[in-house]
Write a structure and sequence with these properties.
The chain is an alpha+beta fold. The protein has 2 domains: 80 residues; 116 residues, Carboxypeptidase-like, regulatory domain (Immunoglobulin-like, Sandwich), CATH 2.60.40. It contains 4 helices and 7 strands; from the N terminus they run αααβββββββα. The strands form 2 sheets. Strands 3-2-5-6 form a 4-stranded antiparallel beta sheet, with no helix packed on it. Strands 4-1-7 form a 3-stranded mixed beta sheet, with no helix packed on it. A hairpin with a 5-residue loop joins strand 5 and strand 6. It is elongated and about 70 Å long. The protein starts with 19 loop residues before the first helix and ends in an 8-residue tail after the last helix.
């Protein structure tokens, strides 16, 4: 009688395994007490989990060869490896946030920085990030930003002062919107962004699966969101 090998610690699907949102919230809690040593601690934690994922992937591959792809034990091993990879991705996002330097901000302005990830927690690159009001009108005065190869963006608003009154300008209720390379909106924050004068806000944004367009962008955004192409001579 053939005996099935056991998956270390994962012989069957774990119904008590934490969900992605629980992992994200739990890991994000470490930011409350982040200091210079926290980044290294999180990096070490990442390395430990990466090694574990490598082991889980090797185990899953071995079991698949022995038992076939449809065996429940194989499915459990693959699920464990997938869950481990997701946890590593969350830890990576936390480490990137902790390690991101705070930009210089004007005393009359504010900054909004962060990173945009796909639903599988891969950096979302070459997207356009900007702020709109409650009517989805682009607030041009705050500018815009493109996400880089790490999904990072920065909107640094210097602020403005009314010379007559000396008061800083008052902002409308702001929402964060993101459009893809075709200028199609794929994200709109449900909670308003409330800038704090003289400080920086960091946001981690995970795009919904499929990144389906959710409407029409502000007309002006098309010009900056769609890369210009050289005309053929």
């Amino acid at each position: 009688m053939k005996t099935k090998p056991k998956v270390p610690g994962n012989s069957a699907p774990d119904s008590t395994a934490p969900r992605a949102s629980q992992l994200r919230d739990g890991l994000a809690a470490t930011l409350a007490s982040a200091d210079s040593g926290t980044a290294q601690t999180v990096q070490n934690l990442k390395l430990v989990h990466q090694a574990r994922v490598s082991q889980l992937n090797r185990t899953a591959a071995t079991l698949k060869k022995q038992l076939g792809p449809d065996d429940p034990t194989v499915k459990a091993a693959e699920a464990a490896a997938k869950a481990g990879s997701l946890k590593v991705a969350h830890i990576t996002a936390i480490h990137q946030q902790i390690a991101t330097p705070t930009p210089e901000v004007s005393s009359t302005g504010w900054a909004l920085q962060g990173r945009v990830y796909s639903s599988t927690l891969h950096p979302a690159t070459a997207l356009t990030v900007f702020l709109v009001d409650a009517q989805h009108a682009w607030q041009r005065q705050y500018g815009f930003a493109y996400t880089d190869s790490n999904g990072y963006f920065l909107i640094n608003y210097p602020g403005s002062t009314d010379p007559a009154s000396g008061a800083t300008d008052s902002a409308p209720q702001l929402f964060l919107e993101i459009v893809n390379k075709s200028a199609k909106p794929i994200y709109l924050s449900t909670e308003p962004f409330q800038p704090t004068q003289g400080s920086t806000t960091y946001k981690t944004i995970t795009l919904p699966a499929g990144e389906h367009p959710i409407g029409d962008p502000p007309p002006e955004i098309r010009v900056i969101a769609i890369p210009t192409t050289k005309r053929k001579r």
